[in-house]
């Protein structure tokens, strides 16, 4: 193959360049097109998160996400809502601009809301049942006939409160259900217009902490946790330690056992993978630390059993952020990632084509010379086995035509030696014709050499 290195591009004929170059170009274009099918469009510069009420935990979390993603040049719009149920309905709405929502576990499932996936659970949201009067000792059936605030329509609090009241036969009249929650519900409980208030949220919630500090308000501690988690598998059991809220005043005065769903980040399945990666990093930054009800590293986690996990989320939990995003700004990492996805398959095809094309050209030139030798050998055999003195002129004309083609057909200088060798062999066959003609008594001048111009 050393001869290939001696061939200059200017020596390649247009015909050879077209016959070899065009198929190679088509292969490269096909590889480029195929690779392009796997290149995601550039990630959008913004997206919408459906949170909760302005003073709620979901909105506070959304604000943290917004701040972190803004550092990477991504704008997050927060859209307040009544809570988890409304967030799911927005995500399921094809005409909704919402692509991310914070959702309480147990609120909905994939069969009800197809096309949604989870990025994981981010913290516990205990069920806080605050009440006035005698201690209940986990006897929710004794709430029958009470005035109970269970949260507004569209909230996750309302859904889990309804489930707990129904399973304990405390939902039906004379129980008075009221759509109260948050600060409004807490005020009603303090003022006596409510007997019981269901809240669902993190222990850091100001409303929850204020009720825990109120000596007139009691907090229910669950005893039959195994029974509850068997009926509601999306619930976990968490312990609020004695003095965990206020060590100096020993609040709460005893360890409290709580049932807790988790807050989950649910997204539309077609959310851009780069945004998913960025959101996962924000989740890890916000929720990865230590908490009163969990240890550092416990969240985020794939704990949600109702929705399938996003592929990008599964990869993040196994190996962390994408390699490029660890060392490059988000915009640069996503651009480089798209270029790599495009170029790697292209180079896999381009490099072999670049190496194979000269070999094809070399084979093409060699085959041309071999073809001429084939014609010469065929004529030689004909002369040796079936020599006809009447065909001397035709023999000579065929040799002349072959020699003319070898002389005039443009070939790289690297193959000049083979062409001269071919012409010598043509002369050898011409002499053979003369010898055969002389033996047959024919006119040998008919086998004379062809005189080509210098």
Which terms would index this structure?
disordered C terminus; 14 helices; 13% strand; alpha/beta; D-Maltodextrin-Binding Protein, domain 2; rod-shaped; 3 domains; five-stranded mixed beta sheet; 454 residues
Low-pLDDT sequence parts:
450-454
Neighbour order of strands in the largest sheet: 2-1-3-12-4
- Total of helices: 14
Helical proportion, percent range = 40-55%
Largest sheet: 5 strands, mixed
Number of strands: 12
**CATH class designation of the largest domain:** Alpha Beta
Indicate the CATH topology of the largest domain: D-Maltodextrin-Binding Protein, domain 2
Q: Give the class from helix and strand content and strand pairing.
A: alpha/beta
Mean pLDDT: 84
Architecture of the largest domain in CATH?
3-Layer(aba) Sandwich
What is the CATH H-level superfamily of the largest domain? Periplasmic binding protein-like II
Number of domains: 3
Distance between the termini: 31 Å
């Amino acid at each position: 193959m050393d001869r290939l290195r001696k061939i200059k591009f200017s020596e390649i004929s247009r015909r050879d360049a077209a016959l070899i170059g065009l198929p190679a170009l088509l292969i490269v274009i096909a590889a480029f097109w195929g690779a392009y099918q796997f290149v995601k469009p550039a990630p959008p510069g913004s997206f919408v998160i459906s949170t909760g009420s302005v003073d709620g935990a979901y909105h506070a979390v959304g604000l943290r996400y917004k701040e972190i993603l803004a550092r990477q040049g991504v704008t997050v719009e927060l859209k307040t809502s009544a809570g988890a149920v409304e967030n799911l309905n927005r995500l399921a709405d094809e005409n909704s601009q919402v692509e991310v929502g914070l959702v309480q576990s147990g609120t909905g499932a994939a069969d009800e809301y197809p096309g949604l996936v989870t990025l994981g659970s981010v913290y516990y949201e205990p069920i806080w049942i605050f009440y006035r009067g005698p201690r209940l000792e986990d006897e929710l059936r004794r709430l029958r006939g009470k005035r109970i605030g269970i949260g507004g329509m569209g909230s996750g609090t309302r859904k889990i409160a309804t489930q707990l009241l129904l399973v304990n036969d405390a939902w039906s009249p004379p129980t008075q259900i009221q759509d109260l929650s948050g600060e409004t519900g807490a005020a009603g409980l303090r003022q006596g217009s409510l007997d019981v208030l269901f809240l669902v949220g993190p222990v850091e919630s100001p409303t929850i902490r204020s009720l825990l500090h109120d000596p007139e308000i009691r907090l229910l501690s669950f005893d039959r946790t195994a029974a509850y988690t068997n009926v509601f598998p999306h619930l976990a059991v968490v312990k609020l330690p004695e003095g965990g809220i206020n060590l100096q005043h020993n609040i709460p005065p005893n360890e409290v056992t709580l049932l807790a769903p988790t807050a989950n980040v649910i997204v539309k399945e077609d959310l851009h993978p780069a945004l998913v990666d960025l959101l996962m990093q924000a989740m890890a930054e916000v929720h990865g630390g230590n908490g009163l009800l969990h240890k550092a590293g416990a969240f985020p986690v794939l704990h949600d059993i109702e929705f399938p996990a996003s592929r990008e989320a599964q990869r993040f939990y196994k190996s962390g952020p994408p390699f490029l995003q660890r060392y490059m700004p988000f915009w640069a990492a996503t651009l480089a990632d798209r270029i790599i996805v495009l170029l790697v398959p292209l180079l896999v095809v381009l490099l072999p084509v670049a190496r194979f094309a000269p070999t094809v050209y070399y084979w093409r030139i060699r085959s041309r010379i071999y073809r001429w030798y084939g014609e010469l050998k065929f004529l030689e055999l004909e002369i040796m086995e079936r020599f006809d003195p009447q065909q001397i002129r035709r023999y000579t004309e065929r040799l002349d035509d072959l020699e003319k083609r070898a002389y005039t057909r443009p070939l790289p200088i690297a193959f000049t030696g083979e062409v001269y060798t071919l012409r010598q062999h043509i002369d050898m066959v011409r002499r053979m014709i003369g010898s055969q003609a002389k033996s047959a008594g024919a006119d040998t001048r008919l086998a004379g050499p062809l005189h080509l111009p210098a």
